[in-house]
Design brief:
This protein is of the alpha+beta class and 574 residues long. It has 17 helices and 21 strands. It has four domains: 9-120, PAS domain (Beta-Lactamase, 2-Layer Sandwich), CATH 3.30.450; 133-226, Beta-Lactamase, CATH 3.30.450.20; 240-374, GAF domain (Beta-Lactamase), CATH 3.30.450.40; 387-537, Reverse transcriptase/Diguanylate cyclase domain (Alpha-Beta Plaits, 2-Layer Sandwich), CATH 3.30.70.270. It has a five-stranded antiparallel sheet. A five-stranded antiparallel sheet has the order 7-6-10-9-8, with helices on both faces. The chain is rod-shaped and about 170 Å long.
Amino acid sequence: MPQEAEPDLIEILDIAVVEATVRDHRIRRANTAACALFGRPEAEVVGLDWEKITAPEDHARLHAQIRFRQASGRRRERMMVRLLQPDGDLRHALATIVLRADPDGEEYFVVHLQDVSEEIAAQDRLRLIVENTPVSMFLVDRNGRVLVSEGTASPEAAAGLLEARASSIFTAFAYLPQATSLMRQALDGQRVHQVIEAFGRRLDVHLVPIPGPGGRVASVASVASDVTDLHLALASLRARSAEQAVVAELGRRALEARDPAELWERAVRALADHLGADLVEAHGLDANGERAGLLAREDRRGPQEPDRPRTRKDPTRSPTACVTVPIGHLGRPLAVIELCRAPLADEERQFVHSVAAVLGSAALRFQMESEIRHRSLHDGLTGLPNRTALLDRLSRALRRADHDHRQVGVLFVDLDGFKAINDALGHQAGDDLLRTTATRLSHAVRPGDVAGRLAGDEFAVLCENVDGTADLEAIADRVVTALAVPVRLLGRPVTLTGSVGLALSNPDLSDAETLLNAADIAMYTAKRDGPGRRLAYDTTMRTRLAGQFTDPDGRYRAGVAPRGSPGCGRPCPR
């Protein structure tokens, strides 16, 4: 039997192989794998000019390489080609070209084509990712020369890496000692991960040593990511957290604080610390909205230029206008905070307003508590200190007097005939008369004396630093004279006098209740002698008064015990 011809390896192997003439670059043979790569049947491929199936942009480069190969006598060459598909798409192939000759001497090319379209597409996709994200990737050899680099962490970094391809990273980035130091550590075999500041940005740098033969570092793979925005976001988050902590702490102290001054001082100090402000002041406001006094102040300007706002962080910063924030009700603020600093960001302004809101709530609390304390210690009709407040002041005055070896005097004042006027003219007229009495008492006594209303038409005056009974009598005379001046009630003049009892502290009258009771007894005795009189207490008054209201067995007769006596609970009827 005749021997069968050997199969053609070009057809058997699943590799794309093409033969093309050197003379006119026409394809004279293409196997099945090559036709599949061209996207055309064999009948269309054979006879095609090579330029018809390659990208037009590559023609000049291909011709130049063929001329160079022919001139140099090189018989084998590898190059990238882009194959034009019938639908206009391109496929990438790695071409291995071998120059051969027919038996008759005609030269032709044998071209092996390896489809690398997927690899090229993957590289292109990776390049798109790298070029459109704030990342730079580069490979550095042992001498610091950049072998390859991709990415755009920053334009300055990209320019430096391009320069380092010709020189070295140590030359191109000599002005960044921190970066070059990290690279030297990596070349010494250390894995490096650190955030550095460069080119006005913050870069997260990873350097991984790649060992070569023998374990020595041959190169360093490097990735630098721009984390400036992340850093700014984290810094902003930390700042907001710090602000919330400051506001929360001020809120806690605002609920617990007893002394407003301490809270104001803490608030202005917190604003100055957190915002780096040159000057922070808190001012109280009066009923007209005018500044009534400085509540707290934090001044961090330099002593050489007290009128120019400055900061500790940047003493050369130019001054700016101050920001003023009201505290309390919008329509009627109780105070203001004035803060001098460079322009505040929106978040910083919100922080200032949050602090102001806490202080406003605290100020309202202090105001309400102050009003409650005032009402609890003052008479609602006359505004004078009430019995509780007067006894407290008298107790403190007696302790001071005992320490200083001085005396304290008390005047007990009772209006004569007040009930008749109250019954005849009505309670409104009686209230007007009590308010007038309070005003006259306050003007008749000395500047340091304290007038108070005990109950009904009873008043008392605390007199410190008196030298004796004569001083008290002089004050009592002025009181009696002031009360005797006619007052107009419901359009008619009314003359009302007052009876005044005087008592001076001594070892037997050393506590507030006892001293006030002695003045009460003296007033009662003076009233029995007639209206509009004053009389100083002596010990015989209590004995005589007690005798008038006791039966032969020494017991008080029901309903007639004198006020302030042991058998009388206050108030007792007269």
